[in-house]
Amino acid sequence: MNIFRLLGDVSHLVAIIILFLKIWRSKSCAGISGKSQVLFALVFTTRYLDLFTSFISVYNTVMKVVFLGLAYATVYLIYLRFRSSYDSESDSFRVEFLLVPVAGLSFLENYAFAPLEVKNHGHPPC
């Protein structure tokens, strides 16, 4: 295993867990962008569409499931569990200005027009 990938995965996992625990322990999501967390969940979902179609390793599968689970759990905490502390007026980023161009680019730059290939950004699958 590549040590840099391992360090990257571990630091990313620690950051997500810290955010999740901060929200859970303080019972507040004040100051956290719910839209950013939804975008993270969307990114993980599109990156890991191959979760049920191809197996690389146990480590890879477990990390994908953990990242997806924590991303959606964080969205749940922000928008449902602690929604009274979520400040939607301050979370003013216009998501459509990001999603529309990215969706368009994903169809222009891809390997094939199949759902699992559009996400590969123009590179053949490994």
Automatic annotation (TrEMBL):
GO terms for molecular function: ER retention sequence binding. It is found in: Cytoplasmic vesicle, COPI-coated vesicle membrane; Endoplasmic reticulum membrane; Golgi apparatus membrane. One of its GO terms (biological process) is vesicle-mediated transport. InterPro entries: ER_ret_rcpt. GO terms for cellular component: COPI-coated vesicle membrane; endoplasmic reticulum membrane; Golgi membrane. Keywords: Cytoplasmic vesicle, Endoplasmic reticulum, ER-Golgi transport, Membrane, Protein transport, Receptor, Transmembrane, Transmembrane helix, Transport. The chain crosses the membrane at residues 6-24, 65-82. The keyword Calcium does not apply. It is a multi-pass membrane protein. The keyword Endoplasmic reticulum applies. Its main location: membrane. It comes from the Eukaryota. It holds the Pfam family ER_lumen_recept. PROSITE patterns: ER_LUMEN_RECEPTOR_1. Belongs to the ERD2 family. This is Uncharacterized protein. The lineage of its organism: Eukaryota, Metazoa, Chordata, Craniata, Vertebrata.
